[in-house]
Amino acid sequence: METGASNADLGVTSVAVQPKTVTVLVGDSMQLTASVIMSNSRPPNSVTWTSENAGLASVSAAGVVHGRAVGPLFIRATSGSKQDSAAVTVVAPSPLPVASVSVVPSSVTVTVGGTVALLTTLKDANGNTLAGRAITWASGSTGVATVNAAGVVTAASVGSATITATSEGQSGTAAVSVTTVPVATVTVSPTTASVLAGQTVQLTATPKDAGGTALSGRPVTWASSNVGFATVSASGLVSGVAAGSATITATSQGQSATSTITVTTPTLGAPGTVSDLAVPAVTDSSATLSFTEVTDGAGQAAGYDIRYVPAPTLSWGGSVPSVTRGTCASPVAGTLIGAKRTCTVLGLTAGTIYSFQLVSFRGTLTVNAVFGPLSNVATATTAASTAPIASVTVSPVNGTVTVGNVLQLTAALQDAAGRALLGRAVAWSSSNTGVATVSSTGLVTGIATGSATITATSEGVSGTAPVTASAPTSGGTVLLQENFQDAGFSGRGWYDDYILPVTTAQHMPGATSALELRMAPGATGGTFGTSARHLFPATSTLYVSYWVKYSDNWVGSASPDHPHEFYVLSNQDGQYAPLADDWLTTYIETNFMGGAGTPRISVQDNLAINRSMGTTPLNLIGVTEQRSVSGCNGMLETNLFSECYGSGTYNDKQFNRVGTAVFKAQPGAGYKGNWNHVEVYLAMNSIVGGVGIPDGVIQYWLNGVLAIDRHDVMFRTGARANLAFAQFVIGPYIGGGSPVDQTMWVDNLTLATRHP
Q1: CATH 2.60.120.200 fits domain 478-752
Q2: Torsion angle defined by CA atoms of residues 318, 320, 324 and 327, in that order, rounded to the nearest 10 degrees
Q3: What is the CATH number of domain 185-264?
Q4: Which of 153, 244, 636, 698 is the most exposed place for a label (fewest CB within 10 A)?
């Protein structure tokens, strides 16, 4: 019973609660009952209900349990001294599933780059709003719009996208339309500009939104108000056409802006001068050059012709080659005035000093180029090759040396690919020192008649050359022997400007002094004077021998002509005759280009020209008796370069050159800075039937190696059958002035009638 009249406790026998175990939902209620049994059939006593944990569940006086929070507890019923209880478990109610999902706003428009937040409403089947349920978001076109886990949509590109929100299998959508931000204004930079006709200037257009923010990716069209003055490309590059003005307009999505362009006629000037040419890096086969670009004189970057020589100095000229390999290959196109430019020269020899120089130009090289001044000269030494030596070649092969004389041998070292190797140590030896000895530089000296094998060895690899030492022949009559032992030249037959400087600081091994001939910068002659002369008995054959050494920086005149060094005049020229306008002048000299020297024997006979035969360049065939050089008389010789009856005063000269430079620019055999032995033999041509026959001889030896060997020269004609060699002159001369302060030394000069 739930309730009963109050009776004495003595009559209560027992209390029973039903049900004994019960489960109730939070927020729900459950009825409990209590049965009271009395003794002696008395009426039931009353019942009192109590909750063990009212925070979990409460109980009314009538036994109704109301669930408040999840958890277990006991509800008790008491009557008198008797009681009973029920075990109650309070549980959470089961959630209702999501029945529908709605997204708001259901449609929205956003501009590219903008964002919008979407919201969802979840409901159960009864239409009750549900909270705390998991939601996932997705975009049907992520290229147009993306959405994050919070439902924030970001517009990516123009188009449409469906955004879907899903919870417990139920979905809702929103339609998103993405549009562009409209162009509100356009700016053009620069707003005004000047450009030379034939040149360009770049304009830039910037579309902006209403807030002034730059808009990227918007199409821009360009137009010129007057294409006769200036044109504009699709990218805004304006080209000057002719002097005048034009308005350039940039338009984007209906909005426009302009720039005023003034075109002027260029004032042409000389291309600029590169003054910072440098070599910042080298390898064993390349050099990197750097320089600052200069103007071409018309407002554009100049082009560049880069040249180089394997020598410590460089004198610009036709024989100095342009770079042909690497990014420095000429012509090098300019890029931007003032830009720091680098390029690379390839194909260089390892361990070699190189000089580089460039000239800026405007136009097309070899066609219409206008050149600026030459740059500074930059020098650098390539790295030594580490390749092992594969072969050693000794030259000349089968050399011959007379006893008491010398023969210079050279050793060429190569790697397995045939590339020359420089800077390697070479040891020389002779198989028979009783016949011939060899110095550490490969200079062979004849000791006695016989044969010897000369061996050059470097890093374990050897090369050989047989040498024959022959008995000396009669040297004919000695005409002059000058050892330059002191300054008493007049006492030894020298005259004219005979005050020659003698030095003890430089001389041949075994000697004590030598002649020193210094050429000061800009000077045409030596610092000692102009010329020192010595007469000798007239002879139709002449042998000249001397030793010469040049300073390391010797460049001569750095041109195909000059310096003149020694002269041989004839017996039909006075003892004070000029050194060029004569009946016969024979020049013994060496021309240097790029620091390396090429021997040359030249013959000139200005007074033999019959000027009554007409003006130059009249062909003088048939009048051979009027001049002596056969190449200028219709009998053209081979292997020589002739100037025949040309313009100017000194216009009748025949050049006999060595094919390649034999005075080397780099240390080693034949180096110009060593003492080198020069020998020259001259023999007058025959006169047959009163007519000159071209059978004269010119020979030139350097360190015992024959370099010039001509037997077809006509020194004299029948008109001057008695012409002979009779005067020797020392007179260095550079017509354009010496380019540097340079010195040559001469020792042990001998003149004789025959080659020994």
Answers
A1: yes
A2: -120
A3: 2.60.40.1080
A4: 636
**Residues forming beta bridges with residue 708, ordered by sequence position:** 700
Q: Nearest CA to 121 among 113, 112, 130? A: 130
Q: pLDDT of 238-272, one tens digit each?
A: 999 999 999 999 999 999 999 999 998 877 889 99
> 321: helix, coil or strand?
coil
Q: Which DSSP state fits 624? A: G
Assigned architecture for domain 9-91:
Sandwich (2.60)
Cα separation, 522 vs 701, in Å, equals 31
User: How many angstroms separate the CA atoms of 71 and 714, rounded?
Assistant: 138
Asked if the domains at 9-91 and 391-470 fall in one CATH topology, the answer is: yes
Residue for token digits 């380019």?
739
pLDDT category at 9 given cuts 50, 70, 90 is low
pTM (predicted TM-score): 0.43
- 176: burial class by Cβ within 10 Å (0-12, 13-18, 19+)? buried
**What are the structure tokens assigned to 332, written together?**
């090098």
pLDDT tens for residues 137-176? Answer: 999 999 999 999 999 999 999 999 999 999 999 999 999 9
Nearest one of 494, 431, 474, 548 to 729, comparing CA atoms:
494
Nearest to 337 by CA among 262, 272, 241: 272
| Reported CATH class of domain 391-470 | mainly beta
* 548 strand-pairing partners: 676, 746
The CATH homologous superfamily of the domain defined by 278-381:
Immunoglobulins (2.60.40.10)
The dihedral built from the CA positions of residue 368, 372, 373 and 376, taken in this order, carries a sign that is negative
CATH code that applies to domain 100-179: 2.60.40.1080
**CA–CA gap between residue 65 and residue 51 (Å, rounded):** 9
Phi-psi region of 327 (alpha: psi -120 to 50; beta: other; left: phi over 0): alpha
